[in-house]
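Project outcomes to date are best conveyed with an example. Our students and postdoctoral researchers have been running inverse folding experiments weekly, and each run begins with a structure described purely in tokens. The record below, which covers 405 residues, was selected by the lab manager from last quarter's runs and is presented without edits.
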């Protein structure tokens, strides 16, 4: 069965370009999960201020795995929301409109902050490389974390976006077995590189490999494979308790590895350990969204926080540095001092994220995509994605291949 889209124009654009405008069901819980992942990264950056003096902060220190969650989720969402009528150029245009304006604003703000308000910290020349989203490629820690340090992941995402119009049809043309063999091979190579470099550089100094787009591409490919499985009609029947329990086990394994080498938790190893559990979490919530079962992450407030997550991710380290270095400098690295100031930074980060989201991200996205939205939508036939209407994999693949050419 297929769904025909009427030839209409949208009176109001979707909240973000990750929404599904072509008849396929939204997955609100996955949007809500975005803020959980962003929160993990926030905890990681907070822990960096107290991990030397307080061993308990090691528990929060592997919050960096939230980025791996984002990479897998990105592959799922982009595949699920991809429209057969969209060309590769159109896809790249929408992704540029989605991420670059907010990135440019926060990158420039970071350069100003670190030059004027909190010098000396990061060189301007490296910040210009970061502005172009090229900072994750050179094996140089100064460049990798330039300007707004967290934006290295956007450099990886930019590579994934460039790869997507080739990767999606390549995987969709294959049968289910061949598809997963290809994804498993890619993931194995990337995971082996991540683990090898992680222990070779002692965990804390593995950032050039940890941030390299080629090393992280396996996580994105896994997300694309999961997204294609959902498009094929798979409705996951996974218990949320099982998925979260698997994540807890992964956390214990990562902590044990950190204790074994004398801390910190090795980044590449921890990411690989969390890949499977994160995939389970994503599919458990996607399955509930597909059958219409509400979760606490699908409530309006959780979805809104998820929509803020991109802006929150971009601003939180800047706000945290500003609070701990200038507004409320740490008198010591005690648990009470750090948690109280981190709470202030969290609140200010959410407020700053609202400003960036509503003042930059959404207006620029609407402005940059306005011309394309004014063009009438042609009537197309799309596969439905409901439990009682399975979709043939080759049919989906044929439509995707035609669309990206």
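After processing, the design step wrote out the following sequence:
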């Amino acid at each position: 069965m297929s769904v025909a889209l009427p030839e209409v124009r949208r009176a109001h654009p979707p909240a973000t370009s990750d929404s599904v405008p072509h008849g396929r069901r939204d997955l609100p819980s996955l949007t809500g999960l975005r803020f959980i992942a962003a929160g993990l990264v926030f905890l990681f950056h907070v822990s960096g201020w107290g991990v030397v003096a307080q061993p308990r902060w090691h528990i929060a220190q592997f919050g960096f795995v939230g980025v791996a969650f984002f990479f897998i989720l990105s592959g799922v969402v982009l595949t699920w929301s991809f429209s057969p009528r969209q060309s590769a150029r159109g896809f790249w245009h929408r992704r540029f409109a989605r991420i670059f304006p907010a990135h440019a604003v926060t990158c420039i703000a970071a350069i100003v902050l670190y030059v004027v308000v909190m010098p000396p910290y990061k060189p301007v020349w490296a910040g210009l490389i970061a502005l172009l989203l090229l900072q994750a490629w050179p094996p140089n820690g100064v460049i990798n974390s330039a300007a707004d340090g967290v934006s290295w992941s956007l450099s990886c995402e930019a590579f994934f976006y460039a790869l997507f119009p080739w990767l999606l049809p390549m995987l969709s043309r294959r049968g289910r077995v061949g598809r997963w063999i290809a994804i498993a091979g890619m993931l194995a190579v990337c995971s082996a590189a991540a683990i090898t470099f992680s222990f070779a550089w002692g965990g804390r100094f593995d950032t050039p490999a940890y941030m390299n787009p080629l090393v992280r591409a396996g996580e994105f490919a896994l997300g694309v494979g999961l997204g294609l499985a959902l498009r094929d009609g798979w409705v996951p029947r996974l218990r949320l308790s099982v998925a979260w329990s698997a994540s807890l086990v992964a956390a214990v394994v990562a902590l044990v590895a950190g204790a074994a080498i004398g801390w910190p938790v090795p980044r590449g190893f921890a990411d690989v350990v969390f890949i499977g559990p994160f995939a389970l979490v994503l599919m458990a919530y996607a399955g509930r969204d597909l059958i219409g079962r509400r979760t606490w992450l699908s409530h309006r407030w959780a979805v809104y926080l998820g929509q803020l997550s991109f802006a929150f991710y971009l601003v939180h380290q800047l706000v945290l540095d500003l609070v701990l270095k200038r507004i409320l400098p740490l008198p010591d690295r005690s648990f009470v001092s750090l948690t109280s100031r981190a709470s202030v930074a969290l609140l200010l980060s959410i407020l700053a994220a609202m400003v960036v989201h509503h003042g930059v991200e959404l207006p620029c996205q609407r402005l940059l995509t306005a011309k394309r939205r004014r063009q009438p939508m042609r009537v197309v036939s799309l596969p439905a994605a409901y439990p009682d209407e399975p979709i043939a994999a080759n049919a989906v693949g044929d439509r995707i291949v035609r669309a990206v050419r």
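The first strand starts at residue 2 and ends at 4. Residues 27 and 289 are 6 Å apart (CA to CA). The training component of this project remains on track.
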